[in-house]
Specification:
Elements (H helix, E strand, L loop, with lengths): L3 H4 L15 H16 L14 H4 L3 H13 L3 E4 L5 E4 L4 H11 L7 H21 L4 H12 L8 H20 L4 H16 L1 H7 L4 H20 L2 H27 L6
Antiparallel strand pairs: 1-2
Helix pairs in contact: 2-4, 5-9, 6-9, 6-11, 6-12, 7-8, 7-11, 8-9, 8-11, 11-12
Length: 262
Amino acid sequence: MTDVSDRLKIVPVVPSAARKRKRPDITADKIRDRIMEAGLTPGDRVPAGWLDPDALNVSRGTLREALKLLEFQGLVATRTGPGGGAFVAAIAPENALRMLDNLFLFSPPSIADIYAMRMLIEPELAASAATGPMSADAFKALQDTIRLYEAEPVSAEDEYRQRLAELDFHAELARNSPNRVMGFVAVFLLSLLRDLTVCREIYQLPNPGLRETGLNYQVRLLRAIKAGDAERARAIMREHMSEAAQYMLERAALRERPRPRS
């Protein structure tokens, strides 16, 4: 059998030719840069002088388009009427995730691509959780996700929900990571897995032993985190990711195998 690491190779994406940037894009970048340089935070008003078309050397139409772009990106919110204007907005993580998901909507990554990244990131997340130390509330949140699938499933639908709850364990671990960049990437990878049709079909396949295996890994991981043993936590998660990747790749290969004609 081919080793799972040999199959988990990230396929590089060759970008299309860079398009010429339009004036609204350039103007939006200028406004964004000024917000960052001035250290404005969510809720702060963007000074009116920064939005003067003459000062920006653009037309009013270009400025309107630039502000629409910033609103779409979630960086600015505009209000009309007394006390209105443009204000710095906070970007909700779930909105950022949805935008990234849409990037892959029509050309989704492969299971191998996703697990190649998970095998790099998740062991380090586990190690950092043990090094933390993780707060009591964060540790309890991880325990609570396990309780969602401790009991035997009573139906195929219940088993499917439990499979998704297993992903919630990993999402909870990522959300509590001291490395916010690593945590965000991990949650994004989980979001991609949830969206892939092939993954949904695999998750719906009955497999009682898989739940027990997942529980075993996660209970062992919680013990390592609680003990502050980063190396053990890293090793447990690496083994867990490798086994999960092999299972998903094998099931995906079986799904794609042509059925014999009757």
